[in-house]
Queue: 3 jobs
Job 1
Amino acid sequence: MEDDNADVLYRYKYREMTDDNLKIITEGTLSFSRPSDFNDPFDCSPAYDRESMTDIFSRRPDLVKRVGDSKGLSPAKRIQQKGKWVANILRAVDSGAWTEQLGAQAGIFCLSRNPSSQLMWAHYAKNHTGFLVEFSISMDAPYLDLTEFMPLPVRYADERPRLEWGAVKPDFEDVFLTKSRDWEYEEEERTLDVRRGPGIHPYSRQLFLNSVTAGARMSDEMFEKLKLAVTKAEQDTDKEIPLYRAQLSGSTYEVYIPGHPDPKLNPPS
């Protein structure tokens, strides 16, 4: 496993070969997803401590005052309305509306630590016909670029993160960075963007785009198209961006990237 204290981190994005996905290379843009769009319905969906909902106003009388003041209610009316407010909280949680609202302002860009995962090539690069983008993340990069790109490790667990309703400092990062152990094969890390939110955002190809690898099953026609995209990125950034082609082992269940500087990715001689 890579040393997390290394001066340069290498992270990977598996993509299907489409014009929009090629924009990672040709235009220097990344697609930050909304949590509700993920294929895993448990992703970014915490469990809630229901007891903390039903006794929220006894634990947090400041909330009663804040809600009451905002609605201009008398102390008596506030007491009468507490049951209704609790029912609304439970309904929002049970319907999923609160979870969707929780993640509405978060944009998430997913990466992997592993460039040779046969499952990732199959699932996210359309059966090895897509491509892999390698990012190099130097700790010497300018602060703003680094903080907006730096991915955080996903934690794999048996239970969903549990939020206490009305917690003064809820651990939202735990919510966005915890998944079921069933997904451990992805070796995932995530860049979280709560400033710009979901959408298409630029990144510095000059700083972070390191190499591109074509899938082992990519057609020659698509490989030429990928080569053109890499050539454009080289011209735009005035730097060399290596283009490799993945290779399937003839004897084991392994994916190689011949010519890559990491010896572990090269086939045995």
Note: The two ends are 23 Å apart (CA to CA).
Job 2
Amino acid sequence: MDMRDLVQGRIIRRYQRFLADVELPDGSVITAHTTNTGAMTTCWEPGDAVLLSHHDDPARKLKHTWLACKRGGTWVGVETGMPNRVVADAARRDALPGLPGLVDVLTEQKYGSENSRIDVLATDAQGRRVYIEVKNTTLKIGSHACFPDAVTERGRKHLRELRGMVAQGHRAAIAFFVHRGDVDAFDVAREVDPAYAEELEHATAAGVEVLPLAVKLGMRKQRNGLFMLRWELPGLLPWRRR
């Protein structure tokens, strides 16, 4: 999946969870929207290169959205809606690592007993429903990509919902979308949220499938001077306990 006509700049600061000030190449400073409400630890530092999408919608107060940041030569994806789009697109093309043969792919479907919405819902070759929760995973600890980067009661709720789907005879999976290429394994961030780590163990024991998706995030400059980002899913990373 590609996004084109992106603007490059350098981040100055992030504040109030949803806002980031970015200096553009001409020296002007704009405020961009960030969809990522997490801590974003290890994702950025002031002065890092960033890529922004631009929106002409007159109803939008902020015309730019922060998509990615360059850390140590590696692009890190910080926009939280893109992982769901990439996973759904891969499932429709039967190119989702770890879950081959999916059909009838839907997104944002209501389900469960705790008033939730599943990111991706599909059907496998045996006719079973497959519930897929997608988590943008950007925290880096050593050589591992880790989730979560902040305490997440919402994340624990999603794991409980997935367990409930398995108990009803369906399949369920949690896809950790490892949105950076400078890691070689995945693990849960126990030191950040021990309760989430415990809930993940309960979920896997109950039959919830864990898919640490390796993500290849590539950038190139277009002929018009703007930039393109491309997302690819080459396979799965190992879940290796630290």
Note: The chain has two domains: 2-77, 82-217+224-236.
Job 3
Amino acid sequence: MMSKISTILVDDEVKNNELLNIYLDKYCPNIEIIGIATSVEDAINKINDLRPKLIFLDIVMHDGTGFDVLEGVQHNDFSVVFITAFQEYAVTAFKFNAIDFLLKPIDPKDLITTVNTIEENIKKKLYTTTPQLESVKTSIATKTSDYNFIAIPSTKKIDFIKIDDILYFESDGRYTIIHLMDQTTFFVSKNIGEYDKILAPNYFFRIHKKYLINLKYIININNSDGSNCELVGNLTLPVAKRRKEDLVSFLNIK
């Protein structure tokens, strides 16, 4: 039997910490709560003093963010579970298995699954590594208030990319190439359909089985046959025939 996992809870709402404490005590016997913090400064101090193996970390608090907490932590031998009430892209980021994540209100079943995964990783000594933590810290340096980003995990780090920085996604079999506005590309092991499900139709549109474009950057549609659309940067991509009508309708083009 493995030893208990020393854990700190960080949330600026006392009731949230109390409820999570109850859930962990009831459903996760291998978790040992050694500290509870309700502010960024309090969290940094307790994490540095107590050096837990696991942190449940609220993303948005009254005096800063969970990322501010990570920036102040002086060691890296721990795992993190981010917790947030934000929907949409905050959820999108963590659904791509970049880092462990729970959505408020916390579902005990999700909590149990997450803790079981962490226990297995600790047994295998798969802690959150320094490069991963450093990437989380630096990638969120801009700290946008709406957290409109997705997480792009790789073997050594996690890149957090703002939605507005993405020009289009390109399918490459089971993989996806993400093209940014600055011409940077990321090659990720996720099917383009997964991005389509989460990002469309608010900001992105699947113009072709191979392409998912950011609607913010569309310049025009070829009016002769509608078989192509132009994006900023003189980029022309094909529009599938069966998707043309939907695209025109979506853009309210008469």
Note: The mean pLDDT is 81.
